[in-house]
Every structure is written in structure tokens, then in C-alpha cells.
Amino acid sequence: MSANEQSAYARAGVDIEAGDKAVQLMKQWISRTERSEVIGGIGGFAGLFDASKIARYHHPVLATSTDGVGTKVAIAQAMDVHDTIGFDLMGMLVDDLVVTGAEPLWVTDYIACGKVVPEKIASIVKGIADACVVAGCALLGGEVAEHPGLLGPDEYDVAGATTGVVEHDDMLGPDRVRSGDVAVAMASSGLHANGYSLVRKVLLTDAGWSLDREVPELGRALGAELLEPTRVYALDILALIEAVEVHAMSHITGGGLANNLTRVVPAGLAVRIDRATWQPPSIFRLVQEVGAISQPDIEATLNQGVGMVALLPADRAEDAVALLARRGIPAWVCGEVVSAADPGLPGSVELVGRHQ
């Protein structure tokens, strides 16, 4: 078909044929995520999931979470590596949901791009599907939207939503937390997908570093470090909850350790976190030093090497750390729950000591 014979939509910059090809390429990856409850395949108007599993619960509570990846997509685009950003999306989705005790059931995704390049879209979806397998949930549906004139030809953004279920009596939360509980930290894989506006400004814009710069402190190129996928904890957390009494959990994302952990600390209690129990990976110190960022500021932005925190009885901490280690998650006791001086005060988190 000549340019003159193209449809008006194609002349406006939307390539329907490219979109159809992208769907065909991504089918092989989506099929790997199917659970027995999934009905039909992709291509329909809606994803279908057999809810009889939920009916087996005595008092089922549905949990849902929606999120995106933020400006980390700019690193993927600059490096032309697109099959890891799906782990960042999934980490932001299912790990927000699993801290309630809920099992993630399915995920839907949304990819907006300036131009549909089928192979690129399929690569993004491959990463999402791979992460779904790690999280044990189905990639039930999604949408690819071409936005010429709004996004550049090489630009895209990704977002998604997830739904899970938990038995009402098994929900985790602040109401279970007690004085004398301990905080068990789980190591992050790096920056995860938060704080990239700060990181990019400090290292790429202000310092003028290139993504292919070899950084001795990191042991690899800067771009490889910044693109390190988010750790997806969902199945590990579910295994922990099954084996050990857990009272509450916090996913450490935007806002850092104290701000996120505070969300599960009830009034009258405080969590005292000892920085001396761990040493943040080099990327955190690098950002802080190059950007001349204060300790409070860096801790209010980046996860500092902690991706998840569980609050649980002190006598189960050793079992929790051992279970997580067997599953490949470095973990350690990082603090304790104490009574606040004033029982009427809101729950709080205090960081004390200095990092190793």
C-alpha cells in the first residue's frame, strides 16, 4: 500500500498492523503465566478468571493495587533494554498487595508508546510475564496504546493493576503488632523502581556521567546498575506467612524505610531501626556522596538496601531469617517494636546508629 493509500489512522501515526504483530509476538510469553483458573486466552474484550477459588474461602477479602514504574523507563529506553522493566512493574504491584497477606491472582498491564515496535513491545511483555511466573499470578490481559504526537517514537510508559485474595481472619496489619515484636529486613536488589528522578538528576544530569561509564564502586557500568530489576518477593512472603507468625509487613518503596514502615505501626508503639545492622549497597552511598545529599534526605527517598520489612514475634525471628535465606532472600533482624512514651501518639519509626 502506498502512502496515498494508507488509512487516515495510519497517516496520523497509528499502525494497527504493528499492534497486531505485537500481540502475536507476546502470546508465547503470556501463555507461560496461565493458572488453572484462567478462562480463554488473550484477544477478548476482558480477561476471565474462574472465581470458584475465592468461593472456597470462609470470608474472602479482595485486595487490589495499581502502579507504574516511574522514570526508570528512561534508563531502559536509553539502553535499549526492555525485558527487565516488567520486573519493576510487578514488584510495585504484587509486593504492595502481598503485605496484606493476600495471594496475587492476576495482573493486567497497560503500555503507552509513541510508536508500536512489535519486537520492543513483546520484550516488555516478556519481562512482565517472567515476573508473573516468579510471583505465581496470571497475566490476564492488557492494552498497548500508540500515542503519536504525545510520546516520542522511542518513548513508552508502563502501568498495571493486580488483584488478590486473603482470608479475612488472616489479614496482616497494624492491629496485630505488639511491643516486643522485632523487625526483620529483607534485602533489596538495588534501587528497585523508586527515586529515579533524583538518581538521574544527580548522576546523569548534574555529574554528567554516561550510562556506559564503568564505576569501580559498583563493579559494573552505571547503566547496568540502574537497570537492575526490582526483586519480586510475593511467593517468598506467602511462604513466610504460611510458616511463621507474622503480624505486619511493609513494602519499602517511594518515601523510604521510615515513611513506609510507619504505615503499619499502630498508635502508642514505635519501631526502632538500627542502621548498624546492615550496610547499604554501594549505589546508595554513591548517589548520596555525588549529590551531597543529607542522611535524612536520602533515607526519605531511597530504600537504602531494604526492600521489605516484616514485624513478627521475637521468638520467630530466627526461623523467619532462615526460611528467607533458603529461598535466596538475605534477611536480618534490623530493629524492635517498643512502647511510645505517650500511648496516645501515632505510630512512628526511629532510625538510630550508623551503617556498617
TrEMBL record:
Q: Which UniProt keywords apply?
A: ATP-binding, Cytoplasm, Ligase, Nucleotide-binding, Purine biosynthesis
Q: Where in the cell is it found?
A: Cytoplasm
Q: Which GO terms describe its biological process?
A: 'de novo' IMP biosynthetic process; adenine biosynthetic process
Domain (PurM-like C-terminal) ranges: 178-341
What is the gene called? purM
**Any idea of its EC number?**
6.3.3.1
Task: Specify whether ATP-binding is a keyword of the entry.
Answer: yes
Where is this protein chiefly located? cytoplasm
Instruction: Extract one GO molecular function annotation from the record.
Output: phosphoribosylamine-glycine ligase activity
Q: What is this protein called?
A: Phosphoribosylformylglycinamidine cyclo-ligase
GO CC, alphabetical: cytosol
Q: Could you tell me which residue ranges the PurM-like N-terminal domain spans?
A: 61-166
Query: Please, which domain of life does this record's source organism belong to?
Result: Bacteria
Catalytic activity field:
2-formamido-N(1)-(5-O-phospho-beta-D-ribosyl)acetamidine + ATP = 5-amino-1-(5-phospho-beta-D-ribosyl)imidazole + ADP + phosphate + H(+)
Q: Which InterPro entries match?
A: PurM-like_C_dom (IPR010918), PurM-like_C_sf (IPR036676), PurM-like_N (IPR016188), PurM-like_N_sf (IPR036921), PurM_cligase (IPR004733)
Q: In which pathway does it act?
A: Purine metabolism; IMP biosynthesis via de novo pathway; 5-amino-1-(5-phospho-D-ribosyl)imidazole from N(2)-formyl-N(1)-(5-phospho-D-ribosyl)glycinamide: step 2/2
